[in-house]
Every structure is written in C-alpha cells, then in structure tokens.
Queue: 2 jobs
Job 1
Amino acid sequence: MPKVNKLIYIPAGLIIILMSFPFVWGFLLSFKDGIEIFTDPISLPRSFNFRLYIDTYKESHLVLLFKNSLIVTVLSVPLGMLFVFLSAFSIARLDQKIKWMSSFYYYLFLSGMCVNIIIILRSLYFITMYTGKNVAPLGLDSLYSLVPIYAAGGIPFGTLLYVSAMRSIPIEMEEAAIIDGCSLFGVMFRINFVLCMPVISALFIFSVLGVWNEFPVASMLLNNYHNYTLPLALAFFKSEFSRDYGSMLRAIIMILIPQLLFFIIFQKRIIDGVVTEGIKG
C-alpha cells in the first residue's frame, strides 16, 4: 500500500510541471527584449537584469493600479459577505417554520447563478449612468460604482455555501443561547458566524480573487486609465506594449505574483472550507 501511495506523486509531479511551465517560461522571457523573444525564445536570457522590472513598474503606474483594485476589493467583498450572511441566516431559519418560503427565497437567490454577466452589461451601464446623475460617486468612470455590483454578484454563490452550512447547525444551540439572554444578533455572530468560519474563509478567498480578476463590468464602466483595475490594465498593456513583449510579460508577471502569493498563503483555508461544505452538503 505505501508503494501505491508513492506512485501517486508521479502524475501529480507531472501535472505541477505542466501547470507551472507557462509561468516559468514567461518569467524567463521577461528578461529578453522583443527581438530576442522572437529570434531565440527557447534559450535562457543572457542576464537577469531586474532593472527592466523597475522601468516597467514605473512606466505602467502599477502602484495606482494596485491601489484601485485594492479599494474595490476591500469595499465590495465585506459588503457582499455581510449581505450573504444575513440572507442565508434568514433562509436557513425560515426552513424551520415556513419551509415553502425558505425554499422560494433560496432558489430565487440561486437563480442569479444562471444569469451570465454579459447579458446584463447593457442594463448595468444604464443603471450606473442614471445613478450617477443623483449620486456622483456611483456614476460612470468611478471606482465606487463597481462596489455594489461586485457585492451583489457574489450573493448567489455565497447563499449556496452559507445556507447548507447554517442548516447543519442545531437549532437547539440557538434556543439555548436565547434562553440565556443572547440577542438575535448575538446568536448570528457568536454562534452561526463562528461555526461557519471554514465556509466563510473559503468564500472570502473566492470573493477576493473573483473581484480582483473581474474584467467585463470594469471595462464597461471605467474609461479613465487612472481608475483602471489590474485586469483592465492588462488589456491596456496589450495595446500599449504591442511591439514590446518583454515589457508586457514583465507587467503580467508583477500583476500575477500577488495573486499567487495570496492563494499559496490561504490554500489550506480554501481546502478546509470546500471539504467542510462538501461533507455538510
């Protein structure tokens, strides 16, 4: 049996090599100029001059782009998770009293997963345009206009995870807490929130990565480069550095590294949350 377990590492190692090859190859190519990339793309770079990264970093204003993505992520992810938590708690507890109403709202929220964002882009554009006439920060070409859209966009998937997790919590625990004098909000945040922490952690990570990498809505609502998020900047680099693939690759590598580090740091949380939800579901 131990020999069989060791054999599993062979295909796993091959998969890791195949998955990491594009990133490693792109990293090596980023130290070459455009001509060298086309004439000799396979060989190692002549030198690892990180000054090239510094120059690209300054030219592309990555600090501004990171700040924009960070602002949108920090505002939209907690807001969306709060909405999901409150709605999931209501649906899960309605299941104990009015089952048909609980099922109705549950599937109503889940129906949002069936709607492709591309289909509603036109509607979002006009809604944002008219909203901006009354509330300027939520109008077109404003970072803050993305916040309510991103927060609402994560509700269907978050409801799917939260409701099944909350339904697995015994109602007797909440009743005992209420008898001891705990308020409704105390029950929600001292019992349900704590017991759902693995699922909450996983959803937080998925939400951060989803908002950080979102492109269609941002490309529709933002026009000014100074308001661009990182995914929009990548599309801009494609046209800006159309003849300088070295600069394009360096910009892409610098944008990808924080996401890779984030995923590596929190990968245990992701696995724990998904496994916990799978067992409860």
Job 2
Amino acid sequence: MIQEALFTPDIWLMGLGTVLIALLVTRLMIRIGIVDIPSRRSSHKSATPKSGGMGIIVGFFSAMSFLYVVGKLGHISPEKLILLGIGSFLTILVSLYDDIKRLSSSQKFLIQLITALFVISTGLTLHLLPLPFIGILNLGALGSVLTVFWIIFFMNVFNFMDGLNGLASGVSLVASFFCSLIGILLGEKALFYVSLSLGFSTLGFFVFNFPKAKIFMGDVGSQFIGLIWAVMLLVPSQETHLAHMTLSVYTVPLLFFSFIYDVSATVLRRIWRREPFWLAHRTHLFQLLNRLGYSHAQVTCFHLGMAVIQGIGAIGMQYIQPTNQVLLFLPYFLLMASYHYWIVRAVRRKFALARRSRKKQK
C-alpha cells in the first residue's frame, strides 16, 4: 500500500492536475467577482471576492473522476457514487445561490436535511459505536437519526469556523494529510484516495486564502467540505462487526476537535444567554482571539498547530482498543478548555479596562 501510494505515477499526475485545476478555477472565481461586503460582524474590513470553494469542488471531482476511470475506486458501487453526487450537487447549487443572494437559516437547514437524507439513502449510516464501560453499542434504527444529526452538525461546524484567512481551508488541508497517512498505515485505499483528492484540491485554493485572502471560500466551499468530512466518519461504521473495522469511527471528530469544541462551547454559551445562536455574530473563540489583537495569521497558525496535534492523536487512536478510543479526547478537551478559560478572562479584562477608560474621559 505504501509503495502504491507514494510511487505510482497516477497519484502524482492526479495530484498535479488537481492542484492546477483548483488554482485555475479559484482564479476564475476572483475574476467573476461574487463579492463579500463586510458588515459590523465581519472579521474583514474590505470587500473581497468569495465562492472560491468552487476551485476545491471542481478540483476534487476532477480527481475523483480520474481515480474512478483508472480503477482506483472500483470497489465503490456506481449507484452509491451517483446518490452521493446528487446530494453533493444539491449542496453546491444552493450554497452558491446563498453566496450570491443569501438564504435564511431555516432554508439552509432544510437543504442540509435533504442532503443528509440523500446520504443515508446510500446506506451510509452509523451502525456501531464503541464506548468505554459499555462496550460496542449497536445503534440499529437510531443510527440513521444520529447520522442525519452528525451531517447537519458538522456542515454547520465547518461553516461557522470559516471566518478568518486560511482557518477552515488550512485545518482541512492538515486533516487531509493525516487522513491520507492513516489510509496508508491501515491499508484503507478509499480513505487514502478521497483524503488525497480533497487535500490537493484544497491546496489549490489555500494559496489564494492565506496569509492574505484574495478570495474567500464562501458557503459553497465550507458546506461542501463539511459534507465530505461528515461522510468520511461514516465509512468505518459500515462494518457490522467490530473485528472488521480497521479505521476508528472517532477519527474525523478528533481531527477537527478544536473546531467542534469552539462551535459547541459558543452555541451553549449563547443558548445560556438566550441569544439566537443561528444568527451571525462575533463571539466564537477564534473571533474573540482575533478581537483581542491577534492577527488572522496568528489565530490560524494556532489552529493549524492544534490540527497537527490532533492528527498525531488520530494516528495513535487507530492502535487503541476501540472501546477506549473515546478516552483519547480527554487531554484535547482539557487543552481546549484551558484555551477557552484564558480567552474569556482576557476578553473580560479588556472590556473592563475599556469601561474604566471611558469613565475617566467623562
């Protein structure tokens, strides 16, 4: 598997072609000029082109088509690919429209729900869930409900975290690298090829998005990438016997744990304060860190560092007893909780100083 992964000309040809296609389409989207006009809730100050995620999408599907033609994806049924393609295409069309005209939160949710139902219609659902002290939980019909929840949840997680230059695309790029490596180590060819395709296509966009953003990913990019990663979690759970599961079902949540923690903590905080969490705001932890004076590049680099640490953990997770794998989240939770605590204290201190300064001026 390692020799096939690293030394096959097809892989390098696919990689080079995918990056070039993503570069060209992203540059084309800059010229088309679907523009993001900054508001008071925005993290940027000037009008910037968006929908650059189209470069990722076209590059990804070009890579997957090439791999299918050369027989690298022959073990995946055409029917399943077609249904997944329809769900993806629906997400792409509606998200692109959202970038141009804007949709309401309820309209976005409806499309995400329909997309999730398309996914489970292919048979991709959660079946088994290893848990400590409980053992292997056979989800049965509950698996379909949890699958729909997971897909909608993670599509929104990725969309919410696409708020600073290179943040979402950079973390996805790092996750793609580690997922490809895990695919090599475990002999999971489908995981390797899909991760590699997503990584190469994201790289073609990333160079336009970091450190200075010439274009944003847009909802069309964040929704699509969120969908791909959400579906990736479902791959290992297709086995109905634990002995046949080589890839941990917790791999994707660990790779994106810093994102999941940020969004979950922010949503819970806004619910506690009776604030509408579905509306645009600037109170995510990464946004607060930026408002404390840290640049886009500094905040992004922090999350890239977290992505590397999480990627290393995801590799180690594959060699831990399945029922104990979820325990590996504990040190990452403590790390993010410490980061959360520090940010909240720093923000309160800054606002307190600002209030004192205003009182003195009066």
